[in-house]
């Protein structure tokens, strides 16, 4: 089957078949390996404009990231995201999905949550070229840059946007496939945990503000 041999291609053409094939035929660690490139791409994109973000937050002690430091930290972040982050989000998908009478197993949702990071593999080449070619503009978007690196920055942000949108779509397809229910139920299964987390953060922030001020 094409999805078995070319998962990165069928990811875009037949996502449901790709997810079904990987979950039924591939082990946990094979799926981890296939998903790692995407998770790394997401981590790399998060490191873009690191100094610029710290400036916007008026931090006094700005970090001084290096290329080597960024590579190591993003690789570790990718591993953590797949092993821990996916495990946590899969738990929410499992619990909420059961409320909608979903039939999915936690282990499949865990592996499926890792798979949803795969679209970010398209970000990797652009971020690496930018990181190695012009680290100054990579870490701080306000630094004056040539036309070449302006184009590279644009391509990086465009591919990251495409990956983000498709990851959202792929997550709905994955939850629908694993829980064996409609995409609308899958949508709410994905959204509800996010809303709950946002509410908890807001409540915590309000309580903290009231205590401090």
Automatic annotation (TrEMBL):
GO cellular component: membrane
Residue stretches spanning the membrane: 28-48, 68-96, 117-139, 151-175, 187-212
Keywords: Membrane, Transmembrane, Transmembrane helix
Subcellular location: Membrane
Residues annotated as domain Yip1: 11-203
Membrane topology category: Multi-pass membrane protein
InterPro entries named among the record's database cross-references: Yip1_dom
The keyword Transmembrane appears for this protein: yes
Location, primary (coarse class): membrane
Protein name: Yip1 domain-containing protein
